[in-house]
């Protein structure tokens, strides 16, 4: 009762804000049943060794990206529903589903490529992440070295010591740890000194501006140099053009990911890469 009365006070807000809040609340409720209703799925985006001409054989793995198809709204961007899931704590349950799904999928591939899964800061703060990862690896039979966990600096900002301790325990399981969106937030070199990341992913904001502004090229070049010095693999995100790819390859960037290499898509679209005969190919052969 008290709650619903205080909700009534929302009417003092601007109507637009009121609508947005109500909208969020509804979306929130819908998200809580999304997993159960099978509305959540994963798309996979290839990562490849950087070279001027990326071939199938250069693909080293995939990043799993969550997708929510809402029954009436249709596609809801993870940029919208992941923060919502984090606020409500739903991310813990959702993150578990995503991790299990991605590991199970990758474990079924005839070609043992890498699988990268995003972890949100809330997943670090709640539940026993280390035990969860460990039991999912056992349950799915995925070799630990094939799993890459992507974290953003947010994880380390909230509680540095706890974050670093958790990362060390995760790494002890044999999984790899990637720093995602490097340079986008409050990325600090302290993080790189305090934790041995296996991979740094340069935020797409820098890649977009390659060729447009010399600062971006200088930053990308410096991060690649940093990676080489620290013996950390550097992957550029958001590679959309051949020019960007050529620049990155010539600067010695290790890996690339982006629409130019391949869009996030259901794994069926990448059946050949993971060593499965696609149903289309089978149909052609049979027919
Ligand atoms: P991210 O981890 O940095 O993922 C890369 C994002 O860039 C993806 O957006 C991908 O679709 C997009 N992208 C890839 N290549 C290109 C490109 O060439 N050009 C452009 N313009 N965009 C490109 P998406 O799928 O919308 O995901 C957005 C963010 O949501 C992710 O950023 C990640 O932070 C979060 N997210 C997605 N799936 C999950 C998940 O399963 N768990 C968690 N915790 N977060 C997730
Ligand atoms: Mg990521
Ligand atoms: Mg990223
Ligand atoms: Mg990004």
From TrEMBL:
Coiled-coil residue windows: none
Domain of life: Bacteria
Domain EAL: start-end pairs: 24-278
Listed name of the protein: EAL domain-containing protein
Organism field: Tardiphaga alba
